[in-house]
């Protein structure tokens, strides 16, 4: 695992945008796995600036979701599908037909999860998966004690994660869904390059456990220790508990 410490979130965004730009130069139709939440926003902003200036052409890239809420009404602005259309596809000039995600409104959720794993494989696998990390060490929505071999499946969000996400639902935890579909840890590990970005002091303990703690299901992000090409980008605050 490679750990890169950057001064701040904006520098982390630039660094990762540069890695994605390099990938797209080598492979314009690369499949990029994207995350939601606050952490990846500097990456998306930095990439959008490169696209706007003509330095990067992302128009042939393909995008896939890491996770999706279950049970939000179609078109809900906080569904991760809608969020990623706004934050990634539109600014990068990528057509919605190049966007893959699990169907959070499927009647048969288990079948939708299997179909998503199969679709990722059929698409040739994820070239670069961008990850955030939860304060409890989750990646995707694989909460502590998720199986390190898990595949895409439905999960129940912890109270802490629902509280963390209430800010996207008018600070009303009652509006935050209880369930999500998430790529499993095994699914995430199938990507050819994992890039985890962590910023802010609130992530420092989770980062220390991920990088320096034992490989343990209680810290799902520690599974990155198993991956042959994992890059952890942390700002100084998130690095503050590394030895
Ligand atoms: C979101 C996701 C989550 C977040 C994590 C951190 O698609 O998979 O694992 O990356 O909850 O969220 P932020 O970045 O908002 O602190």
List keywords for this structure.
seven-stranded parallel beta sheet; Glucosamine-6-phosphate deaminase; 243 residues; 7 helices; three-stranded antiparallel beta sheet; Rossmann fold; hydrolase; single chain; binds fructose -6-phosphate; carbohydrate metabolism; 10 strands; 32% helix; alpha/beta
Give a quick precis of the structure.
With 243 residues, this protein is of the alpha/beta class. Helices cover 32% and strands 17% of the residues. The mean pLDDT is 97.
Account of the 3D structure:
The structure is a single chain. The protein is an alpha/beta fold and 243 residues long. The chain has a single domain, classed as Rossmann fold, CATH 3.40.50. The chain is 32% helix and 17% strand. The chain has 7 helices and 10 strands. The strands form 2 sheets. Strands 1-10-9-6-2-3-5 form a 7-stranded parallel β-sheet, sandwiched between helices. Helix 2 links the parallel strand 2 and strand 3 (62-65). Helix 1 (9-26) packs across helix 2 and helix 2 (41-52) runs parallel beside helix 3. The radius of gyration is 17 Å and the shape is globular. Bound molecules: fructose -6-phosphate. Fructose -6-phosphate binds at residues 35-39, 66-67, 132-134, 138-141.
